[in-house]
Amino acid sequence: MHLPGDVTTVATVYGAILLGTCFGCGLTGIVFVQCILYYKLYPADFAWTKALVFVVWLFDMMHTACIITAVWESVITNFDKPQNMDDIPSALGLSVAVTALVTFMVHCFFANRIRMLTKKWYIAAPVVFLAFLRLLAACVSTSEIIRLKHYSLFIKPYPSWIFTTGVTLSASVEFIITTVMIIFLGSRKTGFANMNHIINSLILYTLETGGFTFLVTLASLFCWLLMRHNLIFLGMHFAIAKLYANSLLATLNMRKRLRADCIATNEREQSHVLSPISISKNHFSNRMLSPNTTQKSAQLSVNVETTVVSQIDENKDHPDIEAPPADTHTLAAFEQPRPYNVMDRDREDKKYRPLV
């Protein structure tokens, strides 16, 4: 691919990777801040989760170093040398493999979360398999980039279809993960407005993180298929590793907020049920109900919330979940509801008996 040194060509080749590098460096800063927040907020997480966060951050920094090196070699070293615009820096090829490694780790993390939530390994297994194929395709692409050293050779049918396969698999896995999570969360909606609000927030969050990563990967794929003679696709590809790293860290760091929302929801439900005005107003209607009706209603509210939080937060089985504070009375009631007693109800009725 012998490219002339006109302004349009420089903009779509050097300009694209320069803007992609600037955007990627900004995302690297966000990844770094999220790592600091994670280690500060969740010191009690299991060791493998902490190690995963550290490895993802390490590879993200390596990816940033690779793309900066590649842009420096292309823009500065080859300055005023339009005949070298067809050369591929070795660091650029290495960045493709690093992107695939970060993507693979994040995909495996979410696949494991799907397995823990759905309790069905056969849903998570294909995700891991496709993610591994994406990693394999990226490694082959990296070796071909380093071997060929020229864009004009890399866009030929043989090496190019391997890169196409890798990016397609990446977008497909992200789409599968996002779809499964949304379907699962949607199926856990209840008749309680507060819990539905939390679940809707989780669905929106899943769409924002997974959907944005999927769209950027898809945009890079389309640019590669439609405009192979420029590097706009590569500028977008620089951001993929950073978006996946941020998606992982945001998922881990949101647990405290989710837990606080669930506790606040439970407190609102309890204050509504135990309100003196509510008990006095519904005194006669509660007498007309069977003795177990109120008990079942209260237990249903608590059990639904406990199930959703335990499955989403994976408090018992998943190692990346914060242990509940033992001295929190509300949370203890939230996880171990006390059975309703008819004598307690009579005492409450006498206590809040309206004056006539």
Describe the structure.
The chain has 356 residues and is mostly helical. It has helices at residues 7-41, 47-77, 90-118, 121-148, 151-154, 157-187, 193-226, 232-253, 255-273, 276-281, 283-288, 291-313, 329-335, 342-351. α2 (47-77) packs antiparallel against α8 (232-253) and α3 packs antiparallel against α4 (121-148).
List the helices and strands and how they pair.
Blueprint: H1 7-41, H2 47-77, H3 90-118, H4 121-148, H5 151-154, H6 157-187, H7 193-226, H8 232-253, H9 255-273, H10 276-281, H11 283-288, H12 291-313, H13 329-335, H14 342-351
Relative helix content: over 70%
Number of helices: 14
Biggest pleated-sheet summary: none
Distance between the termini: 95 Å
Instruction: Note poorly predicted spans.
Output: 1-5, 276-343, 348-356
Order of helices and strands: HHHHHHHHHHHHHH
Given the helix and strand composition, which structural class is it?
mainly alpha
Summarize the entry for a quick read.
The protein is mainly α and 356 residues long. It contains 14 helices and no strands.
What features would you highlight for this structure?
14 helices; disordered N terminus
